[in-house]
Design goal:
Rossmann fold, alpha/beta, 5 strands, globular, 8 helices, 51% helix, five-stranded parallel beta sheet
């Protein structure tokens, strides 16, 4: 297993925020697959999506996931649609300990209602679109994941604590390896 953990879930489930904090907490690198894709294509995912279409975007995403599964060390946050292709699900599951950050469409809508960067949500009924995405993708996330964490309303710090505990229980990180497990990490108010 090249990487430590990969986070999957719908747009807005917290993969990037939680992944970044988890990497910091464990003292390991963090990689956002969407950022790698944007560096590769030389523009935003939204621009590429509009110009080239979803299928071309998914081709680039598939290449990046294969590369990350083979070489990434640390925590990887994936794009929301990364599990749509069977080959990606296999690459993720075999290359990482995959954690599905599960959120209800309603919680996601509350977080994303003002976000204009996510191409699949630029529709007349974003909540309806999130419900559709959840119906299609939830089984794929579950198929790919080793663990499922319900994100609901806990803060990023609380969710990072839960992920660290899951990784310890799975034997991915040694118990107590993460600095601040019981320390100041959970101080402060809720974050989104």
């Amino acid at each position: 297993m090249a990487g430590l953990a990969a986070l999957v879930g719908l747009p807005g489930s917290g993969k990037t925020a939680i992944g970044r904090r988890l990497g910091q907490r464990l003292g390991i690198p963090f990689v956002d697959s969407d950022q790698v894709i944007e560096e590769r294509i030389g523009c935003s995912i939204r621009e590429y999506f509009e110009r080239e279409g979803e299928e071309r975007f998914r081709d680039v995403e598939q290449t990046v996931i294969a590369e990350l599964a083979a070489s990434a060390e640390g925590v990887v946050a994936t794009g929301g649609g990364s599990v749509l292709r069977p080959v990606n699900r296999v690459q993720l599951r075999s290359g990482f300990h995959v954690i599905y950050l599960r959120s209800s469409p309603e919680d996601l809508f509350r977080r994303l209602r003002h976000d204009v960067k996510r191409p699949l949500l630029q529709v007349a009924d974003p909540l309806g679109r999130l419900r559709e995405l959840h119906t299609v993708r939830d089984p794929l996330y579950r198929e790919t994941a080793h663990d499922v964490i319900d994100t609901g309303r806990p803060s990023v710090a609380v969710l990072v604590n839960l992920l660290v505990m899951q990784l310890e229980l799975a034997g991915i990180v040694a118990s107590g390896e993460a600095s601040g497990v019981n320390g100041g990490e959970a101080r402060g108010g809720p974050e989104s």
